[in-house]
Amino acid sequence: MNAGARSAAGPGRDPVRELLARHPSRVSFAEFVGHSQAAGELVVQPRMGFGDPARMREGLLATRTSAATTVGTLTLDSYTRTGAHETARRALEQGLGLNGYPIVAHGPAVTRELLDGIHDADFPVQVRHGSARPQDIFAALTASGLDATEGGPVSYCLPYSRLPITQSVRNWVRSCEILTGVRHFGIEPHLETFGGCMMGQLCPPSLLIAISVLEGIFFQQHGLRSISLSYAQQTNSAQDEEAVLALRRLAWELLPDVDWHVVIYAYMGVYPRTESGALQLLGEAARLAVRTDSARLIVKTVAEAFRIPTIAENVQALEHAAKVAADEPRRRPPTGADTAVYAEARALIEGVLDLGPDLGRSLPEAFARGRLDVPFCLHPDNAGRSRSYIGEDGRLLWSDTGAMPIARIAEVDRRRAMTSAELIGALTHVERKFDAVPDRAAPPQLVR
Fold this sequence. Notes:
Layout: H1 3-9, H2 15-22, H3 29-38, E1 43-45, H4 53-64, E2 72-75, H5 78-81, H6 85-93, H7 103-106, H8 108-115, E3 125-128, H9 135-143, E4 148-151, H10 165-180, E5 190-193, H11 205-221, E6 226-232, H12 237-254, E7 259-265, H13 275-291, E8 296-298, H14 311-327, H15 340-353, H16 359-369, E9 387-390, E10 396-400, H17 420-427, H18 429-435
Parallel strand pairs: 1-8, 2-3, 4-5, 5-6, 6-7, 7-8
Antiparallel strand pairs: 9-10
C-alpha cells in the first residue's frame, strides 16, 4: 500500500475489509464475465476515463444502465501512467483537465466514494492504465476495493515506455504481489494481458497471440489464478477468427490450471472518420467475438479518430456492439485445428520457454536474442529486424521474421518490405476500407 493509501485509511481501520463487508454478495470480475458468457451474453466494456470524480461516476452509471451487459472501466490519465503523481495532483489543484482518472492522486477515499453504490456483484469495474511501473496504481486500486486490472511486463513496456524490459519485469512482479494480496479478503483478483494488442496494428497475429499467452504464463508464475487473454482486431476478419481460435487452443494447452477467458479489442489502429465506417468496424469486432466464443469486447466509438469520446458516444458504442452480438448466430467454434497461425505462435512461445522456465528471466533474454521481435517497435530492447505487410487479401503477413524461430514455418516475402509511403498507406488501410463502405444500414442515433 502506498503512503497516500495508508494515510487515507486512518489508524486501526481497514477500508477494504469495510467495503467488502458492505457488499457480502459481491462476485469477482471473472465470475461476472463467466456467468454472462454462460447465459449467452457478450460483455461489452468502454475505455472511459475522466479526471473529475463526479464526471467519472456519471460515466460509470451510464455504462451500468446502458442497454447491454457491461462492466465498468476506470481508464487512468497520462501522468499516472508515467508515475508523475505529483504533477497529477497539481493539475487537480489547478482545475486542469486530465485525459483520464488519476487514481493515485485522488487517493482511495475519493475512489471508494466514487464507486459507492455502483461497483457491486452486478457491475464489476476494471482499472486500465498503460504503465510499465504500475506498483502505485495497483496499491491504489486494491486500497479502493478493486481487484481487476490489465497490462503486462512486455506489452506495457515496449510500445509505451523507454524502461529496460528487465526493470518492467521487476515492476510487474511486485505489482502481481500487490494484486494477489486481495485474496486475503476472499476475492479472487483478475489480471488481463495486453500482449494481444501490441502496437495496435501491423503486428502479425501469431506474435500477438504468443505475447498474450506468455504474459498469461508470467501472471500464473506470480500467483494469478484468474486471467483474460487479449486479442486486438486486425485487418482481415477470417485471419482474426483463425487467430483467436489458435489463442484459445494455446490457452487450453499451456494454462490448464488457470481460469481464463478471451477479450477482443475493437481495432486499435487509425480509426475510420465516418460514423458509419466506425460503427461497421465495431460491428465486425462484435461478430468476431461471438464467432470465436470470446467472453468480452472492448469497444471503440465514432469519435476515436478525432478526440476523447463523450459518455454518450461510449454508450452508443456499447449498445451498438451488444445489438450486433445479439443478432450474430452463436455456434460452438471448432477446436484443435493445426493452422499456420497456431504453428507460428506455438513456435514463438516454445522459443521463449526453451530459454528457461522463469519468464522473468527468459522474456528479456528472448528479446535480447531476437526470438521475439515486434515489427516497427522502436524500443531499445527490441531487435527491430522483423517487418510485416498487408497482403492483397488484407491479411497481415511477414516480410522479414528477423531471428525469430518461425522462418521455416511462416509465409515470408522479403520483396514486400515497405517504403515510408507504403507504411503510411498500410497504417490507414482499415480507415480507408471502412470509410469507403456504403452506409447500408442507418447507424443508431445518440440517445444521451
